[in-house]
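Q: what sequence does this backbone want?
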């Protein structure tokens, strides 16, 4: 009986991989949080020292708006329905060490009321303040608080020609929404009512990014009840992993980069020249570098 060897041809099937289907991404702040806190304080009086110490204990970053033409002076303020106040400004040589972990911002060279000033006077007041603060600290100055909170659309547009990227008013919104106009930036509230909103902010379940923007003056904490209230607020809202503690300038730069993301043909492209952005996908926080792109169909919370 003969034996036969039968050979079966081997068939190799090459399966060509398909590109993964683009998925949604969710934007976050640099630490992965969806909530941010900005604390903005005006004038630059010596009471800033105590407030900075409190902020440092709670990992809170402040934006301190200074009048460089008044630094080192002691003046008497006439106040409406209140006793005169002796105002002592911080010294020029203390700025670098004192505000080491905080943002230094403009507040007008001499605290001029912009509402009653010419365009040229306003421009000079802002630019001179920026230049002097830069000279004293070697920092770029991009943020400002309007003296007396005095601003309007015309003044805001003028401020934008100086290199300022954001400017805060004193008109409270009682909202945690991101601003529509960074040069006419209405804060959430004055610090006298910040405690009333703290738990709402902490417990809110937000899909979109949120910001709690508080403003005030450190000299107001000469009132011990007000100081105790600020200590309570910092105890409640400080040292948390779910909040980004930011200066007004870095917050503006980051949100501007988010707003300039390009979504096209299944990709998200970071068109910023200076700012990486962060996003969440698949439970992981990832960085989208400057000039890079990722596959993504949509941005869920933009």
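A:
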């Amino acid at each position: 009986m003969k034996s036969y060897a039968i050979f079966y041809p081997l068939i190799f099937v090459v399966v060509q991989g398909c590109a993964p289907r683009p998925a949604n991404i969710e934007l976050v702040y640099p630490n992965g949080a969806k909530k941010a806190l900005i604390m903005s304080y005006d004038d630059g009086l010596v009471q800033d020292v105590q407030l900075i110490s409190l902020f440092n204990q709670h990992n809170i970053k402040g934006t301190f708006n200074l009048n460089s033409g008044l630094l080192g002076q002691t003046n008497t303020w006439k106040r409406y329905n209140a006793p005169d106040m002796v105002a002592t400004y911080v010294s020029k040589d203390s700025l670098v060490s004192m505000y080491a972990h905080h943002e230094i911002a403009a507040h007008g060279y001499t605290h001029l009321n912009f509402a009653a000033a010419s365009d040229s006077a306003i421009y000079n007041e802002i630019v001179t303040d920026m230049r002097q603060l830069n000279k004293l600290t070697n920092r770029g100055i991009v943020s400002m608080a309007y003296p007396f909170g005095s601003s309007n659309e015309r003044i805001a547009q003028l401020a934008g020609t100086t290199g300022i990227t954001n400017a805060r008013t004193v008109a409270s919104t009682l909202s945690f929404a991101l601003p529509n106009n960074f040069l006419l930036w209405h804060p959430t509230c004055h610090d006298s009512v910040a405690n009333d909103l703290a738990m709402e902010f902490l417990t809110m379940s937000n899909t979109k990014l949120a910001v709690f923007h508080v403003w005030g003056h450190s000299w107001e904490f000469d009132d011990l009840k007000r100081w105790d209230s600020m200590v309570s607020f910092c105890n409640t809202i400080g040292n948390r992993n779910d909040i980004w503690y930011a200066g007004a300038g870095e917050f503006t730069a980051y949100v501007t980069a988010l707003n300039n993301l390009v979504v096209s043909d299944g990709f998200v492209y970071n068109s910023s020249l200076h700012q990486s952005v962060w996003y969440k996908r698949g439970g992981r926080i990832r960085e989208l570098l400057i000039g890079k792109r990722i596959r993504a169909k949509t941005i869920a919370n933009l």
